Fold this sequence. Notes:
The chain has helices at residues 26-37, 54-59, 71-74, 91-100, 115-128, 142-152, 183-198, 290-293, 295-311, 319-338, 348-351; strands at residues 17-22, 42-48, 65-67, 81-84, 104-107, 132-134, 159-169, 205-213, 226-233, 238-247, 252-259, 262-266, 276-278, 281-283, 342-343. It is of the alpha/beta class. Helix 4 (91-100) packs parallel to helix 5, helix 5 packs antiparallel against helix 10 (319-338) and helix 7 (183-198) crosses helix 10 (319-338).
Amino acid sequence: MDPRTPVRRTTMTSTPVRVALVGAGRIGAAHAETLARRVPDAHLVAVVDPRPGAATAVATPLGARAETEVDAVLGAADVDAVVVAASSVAHRDLVVAAADAGKHVFCEKPAGMSLVEIDEARRAATAAGVVFQVGFNRRFAREFAQARDLVESGTLGEVRQLRSLTRDPGRGPSDPDVVPPWTIFTQTLIHDFDTLNFLNPGAHAVDVVATADSLLFPGHATLLDHATVVVRYSNGALGTAEASFAAVYGYDVRGEVLGSEGMVTMGEGASSSLRVHGQGGRTASTAHSDTELLRDAYAAELAELCAAVREGRPPAVGADEAFAAFAVAQACIDSMTTGGRAAVATSVLQEA
Length: 352
Ligand SMILES: NC(=O)c1ccc[n+]([C@@H]2O[C@H](COP(=O)([O-])OP(=O)(O)OC[C@H]3O[C@@H](n4cnc5c(N)ncnc54)[C@H](O)[C@@H]3O)[C@@H](O)[C@H]2O)c1
């Protein structure tokens, strides 16, 4: 969202923002608990999920009401904002419906399944004058935010090389056929593309070369479970984004920026700074889920939603950032399809 775009203020600064959570799956259940217990400015009013029993299982222990239809909260006077944590294919429609109903929206990544969908969601939110935040949680992880500050302040000098990686815990999908095509780019690496963009402020991604394969199910028709992407930026910086669906040691998220005056690294995969020194050497325990490793970042991003709603201002990360990250993911798909370098779109017209 353009920082100058006015956002309607619906909540008095002294009252909590009343939130409905839409999509009570794995991350939705975590967001509901975070909203109810860890974000003082939020009041979880309702949980929505059409899957039988899903909303009740999440809502009841948290003192919220359960609904199976999203219209029940979009028409409710006691809901200021909607947190969309439903399956990605539903994001565009839910964001547009929420904005049309005058509700502020937080939407998990990706904000749509194409650049056209994300642009439609952006337009709906802008037309309605509501806050539209997107779930790029790494921006709210303290060390990633500190790294960005170091880049912005010029401490690292001119940005030359950047890295971001995501490794999902475990041994990969049990059934490769249920993983939608291009998931590694649109659902996983989308975080890394946003992280690279975040760590290289003022520049935009120009083109990519993507390489990916299934190392877990060799020869599978659509599954890509490991990927390495090189992103070239408008300021000449070279970024690398890397993902794996199978890290046996845990959930691993890291970043790095090399500048002309120094280097900064983020993330070490350890769940705490505790080190156990014994006969086997020095060990650290690792986080085995995103909600464990990035627990505080999830709370911080939802607190940012409430702050933006209360203050009547655009959120720290919104539709433009969602569009820019998805544009890199789309270029990766193009690169994989053509086998060569692919341009990153900066507008829907360019994509079409
Ligand atoms: N930012 C992050 O770190 C992060 C982490 C995990 C997932 N996500 C994103 O969150 C979303 C959900 O992921 P998940 O792992 O929880 O998936 P999930 O499959 O566990 O849950 C999705 C839920 O959405 C519900 N749903 C589907 N369509 C709906 C609709 N129209 N209205 C209401 N509910 C609907 C389903 O019934 C299901 O309960 C995805 O978009 C995913 O990309 C983001």
